[in-house]
Every structure is written in C-alpha cells, then in structure tokens.
Amino acid sequence: MDEAEVARALGALSQVHRLRAFRALVVAGEHGLTPGVLSERLGISPASMSFHLKELLGAGLVAPARDGRHIVYRARFARMNGLLGFLTAHCCEGQPCALDTPACACP
After folding, report:
1. Which domains does the chain have, with CATH numbers?
2. pTM for the whole thing?
3. Is 65 exposed, middle or buried (0-12, 13-18, 19+ CB in 10 A)?
4. What is the pLDDT of residues 68-102, one digit of tens each?
C-alpha cells in the first residue's frame, strides 16, 4: 500500500460506526454480513449503514458480493494486512522484532 491508500483506509476507520462495522465484518470472516444484519447488530439506521459501507468500500477495506437477492459484505483481509504491514514496517528500528526489546511495540 502507498501512503495515499493508507491515509484513505485510516480515514475510513477513524469514524466510530465504520470501525465497529469493519470489526464486525472481520469477526464474521468469510461468511460476511448483509447491511441489514450489520445495521441491526450495531444499532445504526439502514441508511446510515449504507453510507458507512460505501466509505469502507471506497477505502478498499470491504468487498460486496451478491448472494441471491442479498448483498453480503466481507472484510478484505489482504488489504487489512497490507495496512497493518505498512504501519509496522519499520518497528524495532528496522530490525527483526524482539519481544524483550523495551521499545518494541509488537505484540
């Protein structure tokens, strides 16, 4: 990912409802969730959920797929991992992460 893509993804995730929706899709895994189910689970109006999913889609963090009459959204795990990789690419001063290093922020 380049800096512009990372900034767009982080911007999309910087809103609470979008962050919650993305996390719910990560938990749902490959099964994904419909906008209606997401809306119900998160207590967000369907119109608002559609707006938030559009923002996550624009940032490349989710992907829609038709399942009969429904659209199912899934987290794009490769994109999420790319974002995490970008953010941690130079942790530990560019050296392999050592958990016993005091400055290491790696889990």
Report:
1. 3-94 (1.10.10.10)
2. 0.84
3. exposed
4. 999 999 999 999 999 998 988 877 776 666 655 55
